[in-house]
């Protein structure tokens, strides 16, 4: 009399068993975008300086790239192409490694190593682990083992880039007796940040000084000198700018490209900080926009992030080398001392020397790399700053965006024209050098395109 119930039970058990079969874990480009967005979120929260932020982006993206390239015949490894990087370890031939999954694990592990708020990356990672374990524990464990193995490989290489040593080097010494030299600026009067960044090991460029720009105009407060004319230009441009009228567009451009990770606000005895995205973070956001617009697959997406973050990293090393060599005073300091003690720029002057313009350099470098990947006529809607209450801006190309980013520093009142124009040239030279010397697509892939 138990015949039919037993058959039904066995049938139900069979259906349940099938439902428990392990299915391949699928990692999408959007999963990777979300992981990079989390890195940006933590960089903002922890208030990393622009140069340090570029290091976080670069190493975490490189780790993911080096995993993916192991199984992709269209792209070449970065080993032997980036200074000091050796080939990554390979997975066991019989291990059921999901390379897409291992790449994301490696990216999160490196990012977690490089930030302060590790718990924020850990929370994302653990939530993903829980989901993946339910889908396919066998694949997760094999992929995790390999992803962490590559991450350890990247960590060993990363430890030799002089970053740790620069943490113990002396602060920058201000020379108050030389009127041309940089001095801390209001309202926080912070020390010059990362005065030893030029000692960091670059990835592709030969040295920090390889793309040394032309020197700035000779310092002079004589009214017929080129330097004084550029100083007065900053003063006049700022004074003409309002949030309405003919110069409202300049105001919008200055605010859109502000990208100051730490804006100090003082009200009476109170002081608080407004946290924002870094210049490199803005361009990482543009990478996301480009990959989504082109429906890039995971390998294409990681390639774009990696190559752009390499350009940003080398760009900051080159720029900071010049900043602390020329050690030029900011417009705000001179205008307050000699022209108008109540004058203030649109943007808060960042705490490091003026020449050359960091945003100009890294924007020029990133734009050249992205142009090589997507073309010179790639139009896009930049919504990177929407999270900070700013509207979308439209660009017809990456180079157009980089030119606007550079000019935003004049409109913002924080740079002379020479720092902007020479900085943009400097950045484009770096970007073109990376394009020429870091061709990561195989001959087969290039022929197919």
* Low-confidence sequence ranges: 1-5, 8-19
List the secondary-structure elements in sequence, H or E: HHHHHHHHHEEHHHHEEHHH
Number of helices: 16
Broad structural category: mainly alpha
Number of strands: 4
Quaternary structure of the protein? single chain
Rough outline: elongated
Termini separation comes to 69 Å
- Biggest sheet: strand arrangement: 1-2
Spatial extent as radius of gyration? 25 Å
Biggest beta sheet summary = 2 strands, antiparallel
Main traits of this protein?
disordered N terminus; 449 residues; mainly alpha; 4% strand; two-stranded antiparallel ribbon; 16 helices; 4 strands
Give a structural overview:
The chain is mainly α and 449 residues long. It has 16 helices and four strands. Strands 1-2 form a two-stranded antiparallel ribbon. Strands 3-4 form a two-stranded antiparallel ribbon. A hairpin with a 2-residue loop joins strand 1 and strand 2. Helix 10 runs antiparallel to helix 11. It is elongated.
Task: Compose a concise summary of this entry.
The protein has 449 residues and is mostly helical.
Q: Could you give the topology of this structure?
A:
Blueprint: H1 3-19, H2 29-46, H3 50-68, H4 99-114, H5 118-135, H6 137-158, H7 163-166, H8 226-240, H9 248-256, E1 262-267, E2 270-275, H10 279-293, H11 298-326, H12 331-339, H13 358-374, E3 380-382, E4 393-395, H14 398-411, H15 417-437, H16 443-448
């Amino acid at each position: 009399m138990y015949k039919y119930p037993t058959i039904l039970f066995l049938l139900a058990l069979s259906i349940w068993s099938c439902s428990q079969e392990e299915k391949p874990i699928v990692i999408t480009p959007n999963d990777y975008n979300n992981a990079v967005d989390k890195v940006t979120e933590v960089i903002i929260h922890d208030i990393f300086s622009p140069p340090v932020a570029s290091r976080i982006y670069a190493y975490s993206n490189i780790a993911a790239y080096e995993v993916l390239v192991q199984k992709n015949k269209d792209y070449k490894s970065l080993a032997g192409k980036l200074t000091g990087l050796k080939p990554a370890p390979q997975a066991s031939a019989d291990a059921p490694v999901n390379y897409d999954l291992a790449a994301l694990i490696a990216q999160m592990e490196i990012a977690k190593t490089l930030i302060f708020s590790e718990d924020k990356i850990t929370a994302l990672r653990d939530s993903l682990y829980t989901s993946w374990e339910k889908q396919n524990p066998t694949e997760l464990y094999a992929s995790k083992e390999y992803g962490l193995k590559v991450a350890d490989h990247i960590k060993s290489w990363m430890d030799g880039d002089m970053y740790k040593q620069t943490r113990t080097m002396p602060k920058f010494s201000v020379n108050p007796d030389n009127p041309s030299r940089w001095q801390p600026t209001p309202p926080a009067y912070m020390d010059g940040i990362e005065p030893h960044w030029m000692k960091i090991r670059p990835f592709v460029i030969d040295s920090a000084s390889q793309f040394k720009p032309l020197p700035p105009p000779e310092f002079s407060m004589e009214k017929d000198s080129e330097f004084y004319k550029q100083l007065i230009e900053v003063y006049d441009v700022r004074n003409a700018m309002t949030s309405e009228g003919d110069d409202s567009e300049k105001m919008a451009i200055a605010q859109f490209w502000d990208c100051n990770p730490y804006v100090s606000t003082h009200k009476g005895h109170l002081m608080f900080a407004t946290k924002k995205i870094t210049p490199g973070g803005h361009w990482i956001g543009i990478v996301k926009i480009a990959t989504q617009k082109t429906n890039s697959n995971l390998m294409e997406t990681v390639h774009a992030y990696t190559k752009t973050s390499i350009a940003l990293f080398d760009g900051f090393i080159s720029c900071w080398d010049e900043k602390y060599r020329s050690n030029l005073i900011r417009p705000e300091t001179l205008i307050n001392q000699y022209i108008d003690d109540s004058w203030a720029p649109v943007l808060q002057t960042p705490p490091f020397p003026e020449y050359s313009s960091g945003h100009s350099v890294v924007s020029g470098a990133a734009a050249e790399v992205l142009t090589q990947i997507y073309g010179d006529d790639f139009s896009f809607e930049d919504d990177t700053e929407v999270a900070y209450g700013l509207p979308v801006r439209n660009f017809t190309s990456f180079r157009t965006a980089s030119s606007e980013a550079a000019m935003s520093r004049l409109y913002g009142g924080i740079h002379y024209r020479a720092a902007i124009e020479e900085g943009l040239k400097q950045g484009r030279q770096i970007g073109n050098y990376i394009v020429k010397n870091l061709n990561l697509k195989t001959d087969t892939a290039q022929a197919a395109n």
